[in-house]
Design a protein that fits this description.
single chain, alpha+beta
């Protein structure tokens, strides 16, 4: 996990809790923000009009950073 390695180098850790769009109150429509901010189309990922990523096993999540 690339981000976990980068955070660890700074002497910090990712929190254990992670949240993905569509989980609880974190609306699936937030997938659009991930898609745009991360430039996922450059990786060959597309987004349907119902906010589903293709390929279907594509996952994004938000995690906190703690420590240091």
């Amino acid at each position: 996990m690339y981000i976990a390695q980068q955070v660890k180098r700074r002497g910090e850790n990712l929190t254990r809790m992670r949240f993905s769009a569509g989980y609880g109150d974190f609306m699936l429509e937030n997938q659009k923000h991930f898609f745009e901010l991360l430039g996922l189309e450059k990786l060959g990922v597309s987004l349907t009009e119902r906010y589903i990523f293709i390929p279907e096993k594509t996952v994004t999540a938000i995690a906190g950073v703690e420590g240091a």
